[in-house]
Design brief:
113 residues; mainly alpha; Arc Repressor Mutant, subunit A; 6 helices; ribosomal protein; Ribosomal_P1/P2; structural constituent of ribosome; Ribosomal_P2; Large ribosomal subunit protein P2
């Protein structure tokens, strides 16, 4: 994914068909060492293609992917009552902790008194 992102950055920067060296320069600027084999594959696959078309194609593929499962949702719904009670207890504990830490913030010193 980082290679594709760097390729897109290069295209946005004005390069129509970025080369491996262009992508490596972008990646190295953020401390990422490029794998030459993967980089070559990405450049080979993306060169000559419109970025807008690639994004549109990717959106279509993502929209067709299933994102939820009915089987996993059923047990979560069944255990929801127990989880809800535990969540309320956790929220109460968090509020107590926050109020104690607020008292400690000034450590007995008043800045403007």
């Amino acid at each position: 994914m980082r290679y594709v992102a760097a390729y897109m950055l290069a295209v946005l920067g004005g390069l129509e068909n970025p080369k491996n060296a262009d992508i490596e320069k972008i990646l190295s600027s953020v401390g990422i060492e490029a794998d030459n084999e993967r980089l070559t594959k990405v450049v080979k696959e993306l060169n000559g293609k419109s970025v807008e078309e690639l994004i549109a194609s990717g959106r279509e593929k993502l929209s067709s992917m299933p994102v939820g499962g009915g089987a996993a949702a059923a047990p979560a719904a069944a255990g929801g009552a127990d989880a809800g009670g535990k969540k309320e207890e956790a929220k109460k504990e968090e509020k107590k902790v926050e109020s104690e830490s607020e008292e400690d913030d000034d450590m007995g010193f008043a800045l403007f008194d």
